[in-house]
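[retry 2/3] Glycosyltransferase family 4 protein: previous attempt timed out, resubmitting with same input.
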Amino acid sequence: MKRIAVYVPTLRSGGAEKQATILAAMLSSEHEVHLITLDSRHEDHAPNVRRLEMSSVIRHFIYGNAFSKVRQLRSILSENKIDVMFNYLTTPDVLGCYAGRRAGVGKIYNGIRNSQLPYTKFIFEKYVHNRWATGTVFNCQSGLDAFVSRGFRRDRCIFIPNCYPDVSPPVSRPDKREKEIITVGRFVPQKDYLTAIKAIAVLHDRKDFRFNIVGYGVLEKQIRRWIVDYGIQGCTTISIDPPNVKELMHNADIYLSTSLFEGTSNSIMEALDFSLPVVCTDVGDNNRLVMNGVNGYLHRVRDYSAIANSIGMLLDDLSMRNNFGRKGNLHLRENFSPSLFFSRYSELL
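[retry 2/3] Glycosyltransferase family 4 protein: success.
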């Protein structure tokens, strides 16, 4: 049995947080696992908390500035004689690597969850990857290749795609007079909501759909202005961090993602779980989730006209929507299973 630490900033809703709790809960079936998060004002996402409560994971909180966090991390790692550490996102990658080395942790794996990072974060990640980390786990092959091309040591790069546990049975939806198009994600520039809004504006005269934007973040006011500027307020709803995302996904008919870059998109995986056809940009590892013309459509970034055309074809064809949805659900079940995820991480131990 190993003593393992998983370090992630918070347990808010988000891809990194979800994957961190999945990993911690899975590994706790065979090992002693400690989950370290900040004690912050952010509310924990209920599904992440439930996942931990159903496991034997031991939770720790750290406080204060960077120096204080390093001291607390080192103390937690030393006192619990941690053998292996998994960090998620840039701040934990940097602080966790430094504290882990000072505490004598044998193996330290960082985690990068995107195919691109801002320049400053990239520099920090590259330094700790090449000098301190045992390795860095990428959840997307496209990200691994991009970072290696910019100086990351390839022999320390590991590709492990995200896991999706408990895939739902496939769903066939009835036709509706008013179809639901949904997009889910943080309100940040990466998600390029302007392109989504432009695509919906192209389709606005159809009058046979509604568009639901689900999420939260710093761009909320800007998104609301864009909705008014492009005249789609009559068919658009904004749902701010709602507790019933699963219900909203179940009631939807088409999933839309217009990101400028991605890793392995958890939101698209959730769409496949709900048997939704997906229209998305061809970024990150989206092409590993969406097979063009099979379970959805892939497009160039910012190509709102082509995106609108694909959405229009799906709105017009119930059989296509259900066929795409079933194939996407099967693809998720066969290629992103918990058993594969667990075995890949177990190899690192």
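[retry 2/3] Glycosyltransferase family 4 protein: The chain has 14 helices and 13 strands.
[retry 2/3] clearing retry counter.
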